[in-house]
Design goal:
Elements lengths: L2 E5 L2 E4 L2 E3 L2 E6 L2 E7 L3 H7 L3 E4 L4 E4 L1 E6 L1 E2 L2 E2 L5 H12 L3 E6 L6 H14 L8 E2 L2 E4 L21 H11 L3 E6 L6 H10 L3 E4 L6 H9 L2 E4 L10 E3 L2 E3 L2 H7 L4 E4 L8 H10 L5 E3 L12 E5 L6 E6 L2 E3 L6 E3 L4 H10 L5 H8 L1 H6 L17 E4 L5 E6 L2 E2 L4
Parallel strand pairs: 1-6, 2-7, 8-11, 11-12, 13-14, 14-15, 15-16, 16-19, 19-20
Antiparallel strand pairs: 1-4, 2-3, 4-5, 7-25, 9-10, 17-18, 21-22, 22-23, 23-24, 25-26, 26-27
Helix pairs in contact: 2-3, 4-5, 9-10
Length: 399
């Protein structure tokens, strides 16, 4: 058996930071913490490989449930190499588990991605865990489409979504849908029956629709504040939108793109003030420009992408009239929540690790430093600058 002992670390646990512990890992799984003063005896026995963290933080790996690409590649470019490139670009920033996310597209492009994803799952070297596909579209409101290609937006029809469900199979983990569309609740029932998690996204829904959506299995809001309705007036009466429902319904998780730009610091502070912290999941929603230098890029696939300009920590439309996408990485999200939303480090880490794992219903295997979880671990400094990444106890080769 392979034994690792992480010493001289500030260990980030689900609800605290332990300064007087060492961590034992056996065969890629977390065995547990021991008092730091017992580590020397274990090291002396010569049965473990000791790793000195040099006083830095030892954190669970981050889990990104909404990511489109990075490193110059988009998950929908059509080849397994593109999926590997994008996933590895995020791995070096601490993402040890990822849900590759689609964009509204043609059925052919979607099914090509399914095939490439299955091939990518077979590759283990220097890769994060591929935790399932997040389908973003094609069942969205045109009024809230944002960067979703309008040509491919459709209403849910049984024959159409059943084919997607059959071809995607058990690889589909999560589906973002606008619940106000005709046929959306029948789709939600069919997807939920397969264990697919449902999120309200790119939606113009009002309070009664969201209330009904909860009964059909919706449990999250996709990129909170982006692509969703807010309070309006109908014949003088105020009607709540999706944003207000995110605060009102305690059972709803919310994704937040915590780059400090999509959601400015003041809005991040409002969210953490008003929303249960255990219901907040940090996501990058990043496109191919993540981990890439400033300059021209594409939002979407090589075949059908929209030209954008990366500048100022975000992707912009070429005329700079609006944002065109995120280039965030998970380490940046955690850093922003600490520095701009003023959260304790352990709590920001929880939003990027345990909370997403709980939402995906895999928190018994991933997302925290607890016995029986995969040894997906990060070593980083006070500024969340990552020096080491481990996936299932195996150190990743960082560029």
């Amino acid at each position: 058996m392979a034994h690792l002992l992480f010493t001289n670390a500030r260990i980030i646990l689900p609800d605290a930071i332990a300064d007087d512990q060492a961590l034992v890992v056996t065969d890629g799984m977390i065995e547990g913490c021991i008092p730091a003063d017992q580590a020397s005896a274990i090291e002396a026995a010569g049965t473990v490989r000791s790793i000195d963290c040099k006083g830095q933080y030892l954190s669970p790996g981050f889990i990104d449930t909404h990511c489109h690409g990075g490193g110059g590649a988009d998950f929908m470019d059509g080849k397994v190499e593109d999926i590997l490139t994008a996933a590895r670009a995020h791995l070096k920033h601490g993402t040890t588990g990822i849900c590759p996310t689609t964009l509204t597209c043609s059925d052919g492009e979607l099914y090509t991605f399914f095939d490439a994803y299955r091939q990518a799952k077979e590759v283990a070297a220097d890769m994060p865990h591929l935790l399932g596909i997040h389908l973003e579209g094609p069942y969205f409101s045109p009024a809230q489409a944002g960067a979703q290609p309008p040509a491919y937006l459709v209403h849910p029809k049984k024959a159409h979504y059943q084919e997607i469900l059959e071809k995607g199979g058990a690889d589909i983990a999560k589906w973002s849908i606008a619940p106000e569309l005709p046929g959306a609740f029948a789709l939600a029932d069919a997807a939920a029956a397969r264990g697919i998690l449902l999120s309200i996204g790119h939606s113009d829904a009002t309070f009664p629709v969201v209330q009904e959506a909860l009964r059909h299995g919706f449990t999250q809001l996709t990129h909170f504040y982006s692509g969703m309705s807010t309070i309006t007036r109908v014949r003088g009466m105020r009607v709540l939108g999706v944003i207000e429902c995110g605060y009102l319904f305690d059972e709803l998780d919310v994704e937040i793109i915590a780059d400090g730009i999509h959601l400015p610091p003041e809005l991040l502070q409002l969210i953490v003030k008003c929303k249960d912290h255990d219901k907040i999941c940090l996501v990058t929603d990043s496109m191919r420009g993540a981990d890439m230098p400033d300059g021209p890029s594409l939002l979407g696939s090589l075949a059908n992408g929209v030209p954008v300009i990366i500048q100022g920590g975000i992707a912009n439309m070429p005329d700079f009239t609006s944002f065109a996408g995120s280039i965030a990485t998970t380490d940046r999200l955690v850093r922003t929540m600490v520095q701009k939303a003023h959260l304790p480090l352990w709590e920001a880490v929880r939003m990027a690790s345990f909370n997403p794992a709980r939402f995906l219903k895999i928190d018994d295997r991933f997302g925290s430093i607890q016995p029986g979880r995969a040894a997906d671990l990060l070593v980083f400094d006070e500024d969340v600058q990552i020096s080491s990444v481990y996936v299932s106890g195996v150190e990743v080769t960082l560029p």
